[in-house]
Every structure is written in C-alpha cells, then in structure tokens.
Design goal:
There is one protein chain. The protein is an alpha/beta fold. It has four domains: about 5-115, de novo design (two linked rop proteins) (Up-down Bundle), CATH 1.20.1440; about 135-255, Response regulator (Rossmann fold, 3-Layer(aba) Sandwich), CATH 3.40.50; about 260-390, Response regulator (Rossmann fold), CATH 3.40.50.2300; about 400-550, Alpha-Beta Plaits. It has 20 helices and 15 strands. The protein has a five-stranded parallel sheet, sandwiched between helices. The protein has a five-stranded parallel sheet with strand order 7-6-8-9-10, sandwiched between helices. A five-stranded mixed sheet has the order 12-13-11-14-15, sandwiched between helices. Mean pLDDT is about 80; it is low at about 10-20, about 115-135 and about 555-564.
Length: about 575
Amino acid sequence: MTTPSSATQKQRDVVHDGDMPQLRDRVRELEACWDRICAGEWSWDHLASLRDHAHTLAESASSLGTSTISATVQQLAQSLMHMEAIPPDAPAPKMRADIDTLFTTLIAAVHASESESHIRLLPAPSAVVERAERQSIVLTIEDDSTAADHMTVQLEHFGYHAIVVSTLNGVADAARTHPPVAIVLDILLPKGILADPQRMRETIRVEGDPPVIFLSQRNDFEARLWAVRAGGKAYLTKPVDIDRLVGVLDTLTGAFTPEPFRVLIVDDTRMMSTLYEAMLRDAGMLTVALNNPTQVIQMLNEFQPDLLLLDMYMPTCTGTEVATLIRQQAAFISLPIVFLSGEQDREHQLAALNHGGDDFLTKPITAAQLVSAVTSRIHRARAMRAQLSQDGLTGLLTHVSIKEQVIREMVRAQRYGTALTLAMIDIDHFKRINDTYGHAAGDRVLKGLSRLLHQRLRRSDSIGRYGGEEFLIIMPQTDGPTAFHVIDGIRVRFATIGHQLGNDDKETTVTFSGGVACMCPGHHEGSVLLEAADAALYTAKHAGRNRIMLSEGSCDGNTSSHHR
C-alpha cells in the first residue's frame, strides 16, 4: 500500500481543514434532497438533483483521501444508483433505512473531521526563485601543480571547486572526504605510460560513480580507446580549454537544472483545485489556482504558465468557451490546454478537444496520472518553444523573445509596484577577436560568457542575445545598485578567465562593458528603460570599456553614473 508523500499529505490537510465547511454544506444539500424524497415529494427532478449532488460529493471525497468520508460517500452513491429502477413514489423501507444509516455515518464523519484542530497553511510561492550558489566539487588528479592551480582558479569562476590529488592513490580518501560530482584525470602518468584500463577503472571507482573526464596531451586513437575502456565519459586534449571543460562538466553533472514547470489550474471548486496544486507541487512544479475563470487572461500574462489545466463545467462559463477565447489570442496559440473533468462521454470529450484542447483527463485522477500527463505535455511544448525562442549558438533567448519578455516583466512590475532592472552588456573588441582568431574562436567566447551568466544569475532572471556580441539581462524585483553589484561581479570574473583562441597554448582574456537601468516608481517609465540601459552601455564604452555604468536615477536617489 502506497502513502502520499509528506508534501501532498500536508496539502491534503489544508484541503481537509479549509474546505470542510464546503463539504459539510454539500452533505446537507444531499440530505435535504433525500428528506424531500422520503417525505413523498418524489419527482424525477428531485432524483436528478440528488444524483448530481451525490456525483459531485463522491468525486471530491475520492480525491481528498479522507478515508471514512470517502468510503461512506462511495457506498451512498452506489445505493442511490439503485433508485433508478424504483417506481415514482417513496423508496421502500429497507432502502430508506440503509441510506438513512449511511447519512448518519457520513454526517458523524464530517463533524469529527471539523472538530480536529490541525489546520496547516502553505506559504505562497515566492515571486523570485533564487539560483543557488553552486560549489560542486570536482576531484582532479594532476601531478603538475602549476596546471592544477590554474585549473582550480578557472573552474572556481563557474561554480566548481577543484580538490586536487597528485596520484591515483589519493583518490579514495579525497572522494570520501569531499564527494565529487565528477572526476578529471590526466591519464599521462609520471612515467609517461598509460596505465592498464582495468586497474584504472577499479582505482577511480568511488561512491556515487561520478562521471570521469580524461585529459591527455595525446590525441591518437589508442589513447582515446583506452579512455573509453576505462569508463571515461569525455576526453579532452591538453592544454585544457576551460570553456570546453566547463561545458562538459555542465552536461555530465546536469549543472543547469531546468526551470520548474508552471501550471495554471482553472476549476471553480476550490477544494479540487487546491488538491491538484498539491499533487503538482509535490512533483516540483509551480502552480497557481483560479476559481474564477474570468481572470484567466490576466493570470496567463502574469504567471506565464507552461500548461493550462482546465475544468469543463463551471457556473460562469464552460471550459470549451475559455479554451476558444484563449486560442483567439496569438500570444497563447501554442499554450498546451488540458481538460480535467468528470465528463465520461467520449463525444463530449472530442468536442472539447476540437475547441482548442490538447488532451482530456477524467476525474477522479491519481497524482501519478496527473503528473505524468502534465510532464509529457510540458516537455514537448518547451522543446518546440526552444526551437523558436532560443539562440542556436548560446541557448539564450533570441532578440525577439527577450524583447517580448521585457514587456511582460514591465507589466508585472508596474502592476505590483516592484523594481525592475535591465542590464545591457557588450563584449569589448569582439570584432578584433573574430578578425585575429576567426569566428569559431569568437563563438567560444560568446558561449563562455553565456555560460557564466547562467551560473551567476538567478533563475528568475532572463538572459537574451540581443545582438551579435550584445546581451540583455532582465532582473525582476531588483533595484539598480543591487543589479550593478551583481553584473560588475560577473564582469570581474569574466575578465580573469583564460580563453584558448589561437592554435598555440597561449590563453587570452576578454572583457565586456555594460549599462544598467532600473524602472522604479517615480523614476524610469517602462517605454524608455531599454534606451536608458543602452545609453549607459554607450557611456561605459566611451569611458574606456571593461566597466559597468549605472543609469542616472536608477532607484538609488543618486543622479550620477557609477563605474569601476
């Protein structure tokens, strides 16, 4: 027998406590309808009303996980189904007695639940999700202390902390003390020969089985084959290009965890929408529930969900009407819409899909079924969206996509009265890099900077490739001085990273300049924010490059520009 996870169980407690009055009222409506039938007020309308109330109550109780109430309602629903065959008069005494007993048990269970005082409240989802400062440990086996020190400093810029050992004999002890996410190993041992693959595989096998990256000055087939047989996941030649090494580490260790899935739930029954929120949140998703469908467009703009979970039957309007309304707006034409309803008729389900739905799920539904359906839909939608909105080289948002994101964030900041900061950065002397070393070298610099931005910024921040070597960063709920401090820190780190741009072993450092502008109440209007950031960048360029300028009046009360 499986049990709900702690998060889902906690949310069920919220549903249980906060919505017991609603459940109690439904029980009373059902009982009142039953009393009218037993008092001789038999009619098909009363029977239909009784069945409707019983169906809704059974659906809610089966999803809530309250064992006594759920079991009793199920028995009650089954007993009421037998009334379809009775003549249009009062039910037989035995049927009445059985159902009266079930009502007595049900009402007692509801009262018992209401008397329990264990109300729990879930905190509202944070508006800003911080990107954790990552210090993933990389175990490095390198007998050249100079090379090891250099690699340690370079990896530190990208959030990796290198633990260096000089021989294979130190691997086991180092791994026990500092469990690594990956092992970087120079396969050219002091004697200048390759070790036996089987011996090497046994020596570097540590708890957790982290991926192994081999480094070598050799680039021949034999050395690469040896690395494969030793279990290597990657092979890089020395001198090591730090951009390539970090790229391999990010790929093998899953350094960039995807943004949590965002699901908007529209269901007029608060009890059910809260439960679906619990199921999805327990799977790591961000959710917002609406019980009033008339607010759906506003919330689509503000929450920007990956998927809309939509009820079919609501008092204000139907789910198909909501879906049709949404599909008439170009901004939401590709948003996955999944209907979640108790509707069992296949023709009605297909009709709903023809009005803009992508899938149809039936109630009651388990957490595993709901999470699986939502996850598969969002995975596909994100993959398709990435093809259209992400720059092919850097993986950042395209020029069009980042400008659209600016508009959305401006609307949100103005609505809630929060700060919003833009940073425009540009790589210094980028044309000289392309002319001197070639466009492939320039591409490596672009990818290196985009990777560093991802590492050092929050998940709530948006990053786009605004032009050839120009990047635009959106920092919600961030004032100008704070953004200046963050971007300037990234500038300092980037300026110390060595890039292998030519065919020799020489490393070259590259810098960038930037302009920061903040939209705060009483300061910048949204329409001029981009221009303000661009003007600050222009000032930084003409002031000598390799510096960040803060636009005048950017939320700090100071009208002077700042630079370092």
